[in-house]
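Long-time lurker, finally posting.

We've been working with PQ-loop-domain-containing protein (Coemansia erecta) and I want a structural starting point before designing mutants. I don't trust myself to interpret raw outputs, so I'm hoping someone here can both generate the structure tokens and explain anything notable. Sequence follows.
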Amino acid sequence: MLGVNVLVSGIFGYVSIVCWIVVLMPQIHLNYKRKSCDGVSLAFYVMWSLGDLFNLAGALMENLIFTAILLPLYYILTDCVVLSQFYIYRNNHYCSDGHLEEGHVDEERALLSNQHSSGACNGDGRSEAGRDGHEHGRKTAFASTNSILISLALCLLAITFAVHYYHANIDWFKHIGMRQAIAQIFGYLSAAVYLGAYIPQLVRNYRTKSTEGLSLLMFILVIVANVTYCLSILTFQRPTRDYLQKYASWLLGASGTIWLELGVLYQFFIYRPGHRSAENADQNDGP
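Top reply, 14 upvotes:
Generated this for you. Predicted structure of PQ-loop-domain-containing protein:
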């Protein structure tokens, strides 16, 4: 007969699985509906996918509980869907030459006609909108590069912490053997990448002062999934020192990102259209 703790852990685990099964569906649907991924940081998903790979490798080598192995495997499949949307929808907005998507061809022609009649085009016929689009593309690329560099720096900091933790607990690592030690390294790498992955998205939202194109439901589900995932581990058995050390990296990756996810939720609140409009109105009415 199963103990109460195992039953409770199983409930939390399957709630987490259900959340993770549907977590990316709102974002995938939103991208499909808008035919665009312009609200999502590519660096966020690339690093998230890398973290999932490390997570799966570590979970398999450490022979973790079923939910800890099944989840990263499913993550990788859904990551591939979102990354494919970046590829499919990459040309739907301004390209490097500033052209608009096909659905706005008539509007673009009308604007170009008006600009041509008023002398707004330059010598080679390229419109001001084209130059603005090109400049916007360069700024976006620069911002993405900075976000990636910041994320890599944070990952390096987390890896440094993991190395320090390894040296501080070297006797325990020797005790568990090489296979489990490598699994723990993968676990800490996944935690480091997960923590760093949210930085590009937070930076992008801050710079654009918008969360348009992001699914609020996705981040709510991510928080619920991570909370129940941690609870499924902590309630599975009495949390002894060895047990907590075994799952420490996975608990760090799940619980640490919750604070960053709450940061994204806060951005949804402060950058919501009504809130921004009220702020602008207050500024306009000011002295």
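Before you design anything, note these points.
Residues 94-126 have pLDDT under 50 and may be disordered.
Residues 4-87+153-272 form one domain.
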